[in-house]
Design a protein that fits this description.
CATH class of the largest domain: Alpha Beta
Distance between the termini: 29 Å
CATH superfamily of the largest domain: Medium-chain alcohol dehydrogenases, catalytic domain
CATH architecture of the largest domain: Alpha-Beta Complex
Number of domains: 2
Strand content: 25-35%
Number of strands: 18
């Protein structure tokens, strides 16, 4: 079939992206689903910092590719051998397609499954197939999803079925921002009720982590960022304390007012933020980092202090999640009013506005914009 899609051809073009236009919105070809594959009509695709890191070249991908990895939509067609999904099912997409059979999957850690990583590196689906092309030339898939398009062919392992009455623009952000942020709190840190928490970096993932800490019973939650607007949003969402990370005495102020936090979540993907996170982690506390910094960034730790204070430093990938288990749980918290992630949604944009959407992310104007590939360009 013919469809419209946003194709990233060259990484490293300068901002503003509305001028340099790293994404070309154009007509491409999408083949139907083969055995073990599913065709999904995309309803909404989130603008995520992980995509931005590929746009800037900090985290290289195989190009040209149809980008996008955080999305929701409706199943249109299933290929041979697909029994768990049917046309009409509403689904959330997840960016790690696990195999379900390796030691990590069987041990409850499917987020670390390596079965789809080779396919991701090669720009194919987990089946090894390519379904995207333009003028007879192949295009690469993106994390097995390629959601900045009207349709996507994916494997069932990339899909979680959700209730049909859930707004799909909200459902989309559960596939990355929510499962990563809330999962870092519940699965990676295992935050206990009555604990103190701090979150550094208030994008979609960071604010999801903050909401997850509140839902988990943290007695106080400090929100830390460089954006006054995001700090104010965090306050309205329930943060008990907010701090401007631009201030040189930020760490001292936090330690003076709160003492070290039991759990600190670094969600910005920047080494200075990670250093701040370690500084404000209390004795016996846990620092969790989930921000995916550039590969050259490093965090140096004073080993004697690490031993003497018994601090724990942990990484968290996709919220240490089992998406089939966790996304329905987090949706239940959302429905119960305990996880108001709908308030993180900032704008719905057309596919033609995708370059400007990344400018909004860089400037801090947005928290979680989504692209509706069927929406006409706003005037």
């Amino acid at each position: 079939m013919k469809m419209r899609a946003a194709v990233l051809r060259t990484a490293g073009l300068p901002a503003p992206f509305a001028d340099s236009k790293p994404f070309e919105v154009t007509e491409v070809d999408l083949s139907g689903p083969g055995p073990g594959e599913v065709l999904v009509r995309i309803a909404a695709a989130g603008i995520c910092h992980s995509d931005l890191s590929a746009v800037t070249g900090d985290r290289p991908r195989r190009l040209p590719a149809v980008a996008g990895h955080e999305a929701a939509g409706v199943v249109e067609e299933v290929g041979a051998g697909v029994a768990a999904l049917a046309p009409g099912d509403h689904v959330v997409m997840v960016f790690v397609a696990s195999c379900g059979a390796c030691a990590l999957c069987l041990g409850g850690r499917p987020n670390l499954c390596q079965s789809s990583w080779q396919a991701r590196a090669q720009g194919t689906l987990q089946t090894g197939a390519r379904r995207l092309s333009q003028d007879g030339q192949p295009l690469n898939h993106w994390s097995g999803i390629s959601a900045f398009a009207e349709y996507a062919v994916v494997t069932p392992q990339s899909l979680v079925r959700v209730d049909a009455d859930l707004p799909l623009d909200i459902a989309a952000i559960f596939g990355c921002a929510v499962v990563t942020g809330v999962g870092a709190v519940i699965n990676t840190a295992k935050l206990t009720p009555g604990s103190s928490a701090a979150v550094i970096g208030l994008g979609g993932v960071g604010l999801s982590a903050m909401l997850g800490a509140l839902a988990s019973g943290a007695r106080l939650v400090a929100a830390i960022d460089v954006s006054p607007a995001k700090l104010e949003l965090a306050r309205t969402l329930g943060a008990t304390h907010v701090y401007d990370a631009r201030k040189p005495d930020c760490a001292e102020q936090i330690l003076d007012e709160l003492g070290g936090a039991d759990f600190v979540f670094e969600m910005s993907g920047a080494a200075p933020a990670a250093r701040l996170a370690y500084q404000i982690t209390g004795r016996g506390g846990t620092m969790v980092t989930a921000g995916l910094p550039g590969p050259a960034q490093r965090l140096e730790l004073p080993l004697a202090e690490l031993v003497a204070t018994e601090r724990t430093v942990k990484g968290s990938y996709m919220g240490s999640a089992s998406p089939v288990r966790d996304i329905p749980r987090y949706l239940g918290l959302f429905r119960a009013g305990r996880l108001p992630v709908d308030r993180l949604r900032t704008a719905t944009l057309s596919l033609d506005e995708i370059n400007g959407a990344f400018d909004r992310m860089v400037s801090g104007t947005s928290v979680r914009d989504v692209v509706d590939p069927w929406q006409k360009t706003s005037e």
